[in-house]
Amino acid sequence: MRKANYQQPEKYYGGFFNYTIGLERVMKLTILLDSLVEDGKFPSDQQLRSAYGHDLSKLLDAVQAIRAKLDQSELDWQLPHPDIIGDAVVFLAEFAKTTRYYNLDVLSGKAPSLDPVARWFQVVGQPLLDKRPARQTVRVAAKVSTVAELLGNKMLIRSMTEDGTPVSSVEEAAMAEHNSEYVAKEGTFLCTALARYVIEVLRDRGLAARGAGHVVPAFGDFFALFNNGDALLKNRRSFSIN
């Protein structure tokens, strides 16, 4: 997602697909470990499926219920953008259940749901742009104006932004590029911070399980990358844990 832009929206599809699969697994693992700590055993696969399926919203509710039981003074991270994260989670949950098949639906002739990239920009991208600092907005507008003055009559442009808005001028293309970069950076951070929030609970439950004598991996080591502050996460362009 971090490398996506209005000219390469396909990077969003791959990003959403991989992210939702990974987030689902981390949340289910957190629930499994909590059950091991509290009950001494894992729930069955059938119990896990019937309770949550692929519903990221239900899984996050369960993780938050687990988190509420923990010593809050030992927790470092909170969910980002409280006014946006709820809609973002609903989008991700819907993508995990159905809209990840959007491209197949288009090819097969089935009536597709709204393009997930366009939907992401409706519920996350535009709200993030609306919150962009005023100073940065003024600076971007000045850069766009300069580019338009230099190249305005020298280029023919036909494109669309992520939400389907036509791009037909140098000024519109320059603004679309700046907006794409901002949303890719801030949207990726939102997703990374959500993962960090969940992983913190996973790490706690893993330590509790090990403390109770259960043989489980040191999950904090696997996901050490996510145990970093906002500035570092915002400046990263890749998030491989290998």
Characterization of this structure:
The chain is built from ten helices and two strands. The protein is mainly alpha-helical and 242 residues long. It has a domain of 160 residues. A two-stranded antiparallel sheet has the order 1-2. The longest helix is centred in the last third of the chain and has 42 residues. It is elongated and about 70 Å long. The mean pLDDT is 89.
Helix and strand arrangement:
Blueprint: H1 10-39, H2 45-52, H3 56-69, H4 85-97, H5 102-108, H6 116-130, H7 134-151, E1 159-160, E2 166-167, H8 170-211, H9 219-222, H10 230-235
Antiparallel strand pairs: 1-2
Helix pairs in contact: 1-3, 1-4, 1-8, 4-6, 6-8, 7-8
Quick summary of this structure?
This protein is mostly helical.
